[in-house]
């Protein structure tokens, strides 16, 4: 039976029967002990009822203690400590060491899954690590990664002059569990072999350290040691790393004294090693090393002006079709330079145009885009074309292309005196860009352009006036140049040798000629080639077509079995779920 004694709720007694129908109004001025505590027994042995009131929003915000998901109360001191820990800056040395170590799992996944994309991800992280590289950071990574008895670790430490470094285990929170678990984990880690990919990756970091310090001699010696190690290993997961090793090896030799184009330069002695690496890469079907070494050999031959040897290399080797986009752009650039020197301007212009289109758009690749564009402008002038003005308005190239803008203006107008003064004024920039000898060939083009302007301005002009305006030596030379321009189709005119003048013909409609169709055809060809290259660059899972064929064959066999059972009467429509249509 219910008790007749009223229950307490707040400060005043309130009726609260079992079958009561009235709502009880709660107030916030109730004591805390009655709000949050559990029910207590009275003196009579009967349990008092306490109603828990949910706190308001203001009380939630003002209350400092709280509970986490596990029910532990967070103290004020602990909250202050957490805030202080968040405000503490991370040690840059520890951050650099952890960044380097984060690349090791990527290399392990590349070996396990046989996927080079994880190796490329590890190589991309070098750009952010490079600014913080020091011998102490490298020594710490080596001593915490390798066991003390590893010969590879000792050779790497000797390379950075830290052979006296002490080997220790990293102090990470994961290892602070139990003494037994720590011993088990450390024992397993010591027994685990370090992958050769990790050795070569750390070797690449040491190469970059030498390159930034400009210690080219020690860098070349260490690079030779790395190439010997790579040559002894036949692992496809090392392809991207070995290509990077040969790249830095070539850079060291280019910067050593005497510099190219001296025949005693170290780049000449590097060629046998690069040729041997190319032969090994072709036999092993190492696409990354093959494409990189071909580009390095072309750069090597061009640095010493061995054009014939570079042409023979292009003729007797086949550049890989599935090479990376950056290597394809470099290969096209060097190929365009070779063809320009060989007076094959049309092919050179095609290669250079493709190189500028394939050039990366990132700011770090602005130098390559500028070099390719400069050579392309000179080739266009040698072909008799005038480059578009929009090329010089690009913000990333406006300052670098300023000398070439003055050159284009001189060639476009056909003023020989202004052309020669431009060459004299910017000769150092042209020599630094490697386009000076090609620009000297533009003298005849300037004269042809001047003759074309005269043919458009005058219906008849004497050879003497042509000689004076173009500052030629004699009228005979003017007659020869005009005759050659007429034969090459530069101008539409006739030459009267007896009277000594040039008579221009009436200019027809340019759209009636084949020139617009040829320009349109070139653009269509460029779009088609881009489409073909994009299709070739698509990635497909290995043996996926075989799996699809197998699944299709199994599906056909199941359909035959079902049809046979239906004909025999073993199956009906209900057995098939009601979705089978009659045959």
From TrEMBL:
InterPro entries per UniProt: CSN3, PCI_dom, PSMD3_C, TPR_PSMD3_N, WH_DNA-bd_sf
Biased composition (Basic and acidic residues): 179-190, 553-567
Keywords linked to the UniProt accession: DNA-binding, Proteasome
GO cellular component: proteasome regulatory particle, lid subcomplex
Acidic residues composition-biased segments: 71-85, 568-583
SMART domains the UniProt entry points to: PAM, PINT
PROSITE patterns linked to this entry: PCI
The UniProt record lists the keyword DNA-binding: yes
Keyword Nucleotide-binding: no
GO molecular function, one term: enzyme regulator activity
Domain of life: Eukaryota
Homology family: Belongs to the proteasome subunit S3 family.
Name of the protein in its database record: Winged helix DNA-binding protein
